[in-house]
Amino acid sequence: MVRPLYQPRSGALPKRDERGHAGLWYDKFCDRWSVKTWQLEANDPGGGKLGWINTLAGQPLGQRQQLQEACTRLIQLATSRGGKVLVLRSESRFVTGLGRSHPIENGFAWHPTLGTPYLPGSSIKGMVRAWAKQEDPQADTAMLNRVFGAAGKSGALSFLDAVPIEPVRVEADVMTPHFAGWSPQDPPGDWRSPVPVPFLVTAAGMPLLFSLIPCGILEPSDLERVMGWLEDALAWAGAGAKTSVGYGRMVPDQDTTSQRVEEVRKVQAARQAEIARAERLATLDPLERELEEIAAAETNLAPYRTWIKAVQSGRWSAQRADEKRVLQMIVDAMKGGGIWKEASTKKQPSKDKEYQLTLQVKGLLAKNQQANA
């Protein structure tokens, strides 16, 4: 049984920190009890059940950066293992975890670390298997057992938890059973007054990231078939609670899926490039590594131009041998890029930028030779 939270002698309980875990606040810090009866009134907006729901209603729940990091990890995991990801967006309200113990009688399922609504992977797996068994005549028992598993045997496909890709908004909903408080002497009937019971739901438009990962032997077409079952089950049956009245219906958002996958691909490519660069730098001698760092600091200039500026600033004036080596690398880079010009073919050589740059480098070489003499 959920126990009431007593008010402290010093005053009211602290307000919820928007950066904190909304689920912990909603489940553990309810302070709307009626002291005389230790109950919560159903529809008192200032207190009771509806009042407690409204402490979260209309607010974006979850930290955007944490959700992005979680989705990035899921996409990386799924794509690296040959799996599939898909963003589906709810067309109606969504709720799950109503059977959990809670002060307002109807619970709610919260992600343990992200503090947002989510859909457990076990629920997704059961929903997809039930849909396939009922709606696809070609889904025989052998195929279902291979993909989803059987008694004492795991399946060849893992269903990860579906998590939001952005902060989620929640709101209050209400159910009105007519048959509360009846007895054999006073049976239920349509003449009874309804008893409104408020409960928490997510607003329509919530985007969830679904991830499937092969973990066994699959037929080439198995993964695509399961993704099709997932889309159909969510579009026609829905997920979570109260699906019979239209809750939990979701449709694919292919544009967002492609965008998120491409963002992760770019991040991975940049990370791999950085790793490759670090590995290459580790094989260079100190001077070559220094030149790489100088070039990387000014990406809008060709490397040899940044090296010329460094020589002109006297960076290696105390190490003439290093300066000579740098100048030779500048010459090689200019010749390799077709920039080195021994003579100008223009009527006004002073306006020939490549020729003037060559003369400038020759002057630096002569100065270095004099210093070494």
Please, could you describe this protein's structure?
With 373 residues, the protein is of the alpha+beta class. 42% of the residues lie in helices and 12% in strands. The chain contains 11 helices and 10 strands. The protein has helices at residues 22-28, 48-53, 64-80, 121-135, 141-148, 222-237, 254-282, 286-297, 303-312, 320-336, 353-372; strands spanning 60-61, 84-90, 149-150, 153-154, 157-159, 163-164, 168-175, 197-202, 207-214, 250-252. The strands form 3 sheets. Strands 2, 5, 6, 9 and 10 form a 5-stranded antiparallel sheet that branches. 27% of the residues are buried. The mean pLDDT is 88.
